[in-house]
């Protein structure tokens, strides 16, 4: 199946490096990040998982749970985590899903036959507390992901859900945001007490609302 933005993330049961889980129960009321890896003991994945581990406090601040997936078994995952901890100077505490039969990879469309008939592509989903898919990013297996960008998008999604705004190009947390076209400038001045700057009738900025 092909998962699109706004779809409900499929639920599943699986073994992980930290024990058995039911995916929706694991997420609970949190935001979630599910990201796939072509295989254990691969160099790019080792750096990615290590960096993600170091971002634990950042994900915690955003009420977000992280879970990885690789088409290998639990024992390989647990031994690989030892390598990740050693080489990346970290302590991986999030689970890695075992998917030897590729059941979950196929459920989430993580295997792209034109790239590889057996290995997953480097896909990542952000899932909101309603279990809706809010972001899908897919990289080739050879290119490591930019997790600073993942945090940036997570900040944007959480801000947009809390306030009637959009975020402009290269936006970073704390910068000015955009007033959506559906809101008139007069209404915007009432909604956003920090002020509204009109560049064009359809392009209005306001300081980021307090979160």
From TrEMBL:
The active site is at residue 45. CDD domains: PRX_1cys (cd03016). InterPro entries: AhpC/TSA, Peroxiredoxin_AhpC-typ, Peroxiredoxin_C, PRX_1cys, Thioredoxin-like_sf, Thioredoxin_domain. GO terms for biological process: cell redox homeostasis. Residues 3-159 form the Thioredoxin domain. It holds the Pfam family 1-cysPrx_C. GO terms for molecular function: peroxiredoxin activity. Keywords: Antioxidant, Oxidoreductase, Peroxidase, Redox-active center. GO terms for cellular component: cytosol. The keyword Oxidoreductase applies. It comes from the Bacteria. Belongs to the peroxiredoxin family. Prx6 subfamily. Belongs to the peroxiredoxin family. AhpC/Prx1 subfamily. This is Alkyl hydroperoxide reductase subunit AhpC (Peroxiredoxin). It comes from Chryseobacterium oranimense.
